[in-house]
Amino acid sequence: MKKSVIDTIKKHIENDFVLEKPKDNSFGHYATPLAFSLAKSLRKSPMIIADELCLKFADEVIFESATAIKGYINFKLSDDFLNIKATDAIEANLDFAKGQKEQTILLEFVSANPTGPMHIGHARGAVFGDTLANIGKHLGYQITTEYYVNDAGSQIEMLGLSILLAGQDRYTEIDVKWPDEFYRGEYVYDLADDAKEAFGIEIFSDENSIPKLSTWGKDKMMDLIRANLAMADIAFDSFVSEKTLFEKWDASYEKLKSEDGVYEKEGKVWLKSSEKSDEKDRVVVREDGRPTYLAGDIIYHDDKFQRRYDHYINIWGADHHGYIARVKAAISYLGYESDKLEVILSQMVALLKGGEPYKMSKRAGNFILMSDVIDEIGSDALRFVFLTKKSDTHLEFDVDLLKQQDSSNPIYYINYAHARINQIFQKSGKSVEDVVGVHFNNLDEDSRNLLFSALLLHEVLEDAFESRQLQKLTEYLRNLAASYHQFYNKHKIVGSVDEDQLLKLSAMVATSIRVGLSLMGITAKSKM
Q1: Which among 259, 241, 242 has a CA at the least distance from the CA of 338?
Q2: Residue closest to 50 by CA, chosen among 23, 14, 26, 75
Q3: Cα separations (Å) of 491 from 82, 438, 443?
Q4: Beta carbons within 8 Å of 341's beta carbon, 6+ residues apart
């Protein structure tokens, strides 16, 4: 809708301009300080320019009025224009607020090590990434989602060792010597149980079986991770194996050398990352010839950029902040534009239950499992609450509050507005199809403001996606639901003179709630 307003104004001027929404709705739906920016070139007072521009806009059917106030121009949209937009939106249903973009984006998120179940920290990045992809695709961006499987390196070997030791502890007489580092938790014993069924008890007597158990255990963990993600309706377009990519290390290494991006010192190979804004150079090959963790990232990003997307987004845990500069340095030395990589950080989550810290999962060791929280509050509540704050800020919430069936629970409050509208239609004995063709005529100020708010979804989605601040969508839906509840309590709908108009207005509100929630991976409730 904002684009329509901009296009109309541009018919009369050639300059770029700012279009704002006034804090006070009584001034209008939009306002612009355009006259002030034109004052110097036109050598006129902003107030005179504003008056002249208002005369040009007077005949535009999109506006009910265009008024000048101290050099500012305020626009009120006409009922005719709002009616066309509402009709189109209601008929579009879940396709409302769709767009079309040319940009291709490779979005990588979660990428948790396949050494254990998904914990609540992983879940935040998973929900954010999936919702960002949903919104971007809805707006027309061509987005591919990807999970980078860290299946090479010491953590996978440690998984195999942990399964072996758990099996020895449970099924043999071997005096287990536990190392300083190994994976703890009942899930490791569950893996040992499954390994016994798959390979027989004798596998725990052979230390040479660690590589076999490592690969097998990694595959089992990836199955579990996929299942954990599916609980929150999250799936990926592709999975990329770090182990497979290491076959391309020599080619990536040669690229780094050709750009003078590496050097040898103390028997190691170093990346010249300090020359690319990193605080120091980083080791990419150890003394024994084994590539480091950073080398895996280098190969992966070489592979990514070879696929020629317009833009690349990584969602990393906040503890990976220090990796950004070194990875971007490597991308530059590989011959690519490092500015095409965007890294979004996801902060950890603190959970409470009844005001007390949420108990760690015995099964996982020292973590709160994503699956446990979903079992307790449901996927909808989990997804919603994880999107209520910027991803790079600390998030704390009490699961008990998300079980409340009242306005203190935001997802309940929004769903109740949608269900209430459905109930109103049932009470009226009419369907959305019966009123979608009704023309808005002489709407009062409350109705027009609510209708305008419901039509803003596309602008909200654009802003949320471009700023990567998805909490703007949750805030919008909560405010829209609150506005509707207030409107319902103030105005009689069924049986009123304007029943059909108000039903159409209600249908418009329901459409925006339904679409907004669906992009967050939540199905709006029609009955509560």
Answers
A1: 259
A2: 75
A3: 20, 19, 13
A4: 301, 312, 313, 314, 327, 328, 331
Residue 223: which residues within 8 A CB-CB, separation 6 or more?
Answer: none
How many C-beta neighbours within 10 Å does residue 137 have? 18
Alpha carbon distance 124, 318 (integer Å): 11
Top CATH class, 2-77: alpha beta
Q: Are 294 and 283 in contact (CB under 8 A)?
A: yes
Structure tokens belonging to residue 200: 């027989």
3-state SS assignment for residue 42:
helix
**If you search the block for the tokens 């409350």, which residue do you land on?**
446
Q: What would the two tokens of residue 113 be?
A: 């090590």
| Contact yes or no for 220/116 (Cβ under 8 A) | no
DSSP 291: B
SS3 assignment, position 241 = strand
Place of tokens 């060792």: 161
Residue closest to 214 by CA, chosen among 294, 154, 167: 154
Query: Of how many residues is the chain composed?
Result: 528
Condensed to tens digits (0 to 9), the pLDDT of residues 446-498 reads: 999 999 999 999 999 999 999 999 999 999 999 999 999 999 999 999 999 99
Q: Helix 323-333 and helix 293-306: axis angle, to 10°?
A: 50
| CATH of 407-519 among 1.20.1070.10, 1.10.10.60, 1.10.730.10, 3.10.450.120 | 1.10.730.10
At 404-444, the pLDDT tens digits run 888 889 999 999 999 999 999 999 999 999 999 999 998 99
Burial (CB count within 10 angstroms: exposed 0-12, middle 13-18, buried 19+), residue 177:
exposed
Distance CA 135, CA 234 (A): 14
- Global model pTM greater than 0.85: yes
Delimit the CATH 3.30.1360.70 region(s) of the chain: 2-77
DSSP state of 100: -
pLDDT under 70 in the chain at which residues? 12, 362
3-state secondary structure 112-172: CCCCCCCEHHHHHHHHHHHHHHHHHHHCCCEEEEEEEECCCCHHHHHHHHHHHHHHHHHHC
Structure tokens at 370: 């994503």
Please count the other Cβ atoms lying within 10 Å of the Cβ belonging to residue 476. 21
Q: How many CB atoms lie within 10 A of CB 420?
A: 17
| CATH 1.10.730.10, the chain: domain bounds | 407-519
Helix, strand, coil share of the chain (percent; to 5): 55, 15, 30
